[in-house]
Fold:
Amino acid sequence: MVDVLYIEDEVSLALIVADSLEAHGFRVTHKENGRDAVIAFKHRKPDIIVLDIMMPQMDGFSVAQEIRKVDMATPILFLSAMTQTEDVVKGFHLGANDYVRKPFKIEELIVRIEALTKKVNAPLPAKQYQIGNYLLDTIKSTLTISGTTERLSFREVELLRRLFEHKDEVVPREEIIRAYWNEDTYFTGRSLDVFISRIRKYLAFDERIKITNIRGVGYMMTIDGTTE
Structure:
């Protein structure tokens, strides 16, 4: 049984959603504000967090930020009426795995939860990667060079890891979007280029590392002077 931590301050909506999820076999713990949600998460780690943004005491963005300080693996799904592009982008930058806009159909929410909890049950990479002169730590979500450490978002870590694991190969854009953004139309193109640009800046202190845009296809990482 999938354990869902559901945070929503609109009680009438929360009752409907929680009842629907429980009818489909989920175990639901409901909290009405962000502060109680963080306490509940620390007390009993759920399989997934379904999180509103506009809430009393602590908003959803702050909740996600607090959780990602100690846990990078538990899926976070934002469920919000805040549908501006900048809100969606901010949610993903803070480590969200998905973003569903209100109003929504309960069937869509269930499918999204099932997809995310299937992914989390898969083996997670738990290792460090030596990328040129950098050390990527996928557990701590850090990128270190010469004693200087940069903290990365969940998707930045996963995107960098994917590019490195397929070094000298082209990683298709569509493959990246399907893997990390569930084909969300907000992330089909320009926003992905922004993520790539951020990663290039992180890697700028080792000139051997290149991430090349293969126009119309995808991206390829190369590291000059290295061999397998």
Remarks:
- The domain at 3-120 is CATH 3.40.50.2300 (Rossmann fold).
- The chain has eight helices and twelve strands.
- The chain has two domains: 3-120, 128-223.
- The longest helix spans residues 106-120.
